[in-house]
Known about the structure:
Strand content: 15-25%
Structural class: alpha+beta
Distance between the termini: 51 Å
Number of helices: 1
Number of strands: 4
Shape: extended
Largest sheet: 2 strands, antiparallel
Order of helices and strands: HEEEE
Amino acid sequence: MTTLKVTILAALAALSAGSLQAQTKVRAHTRSDGTYVPEHYRSRPNSSTYDNWSTRGNTNPYTGKPGYRDPWRTPGYFEN
């Protein structure tokens, strides 16, 4: 039974490490138009639109907000 618990804990640790690598910290900054943007986390950039927190089917782990963008509409993906 103890071996099962260790195996489960190791699997959970591996999953947690994977999700931590999929994010990046954005420093607080001021945009050129004067808007202040506080420090926050976002999904790490890559060539896929399917794993972004704002994509429909995903959830932002920090805010709990569900994704709202259509992953099939790639050309306008970064438009608000």
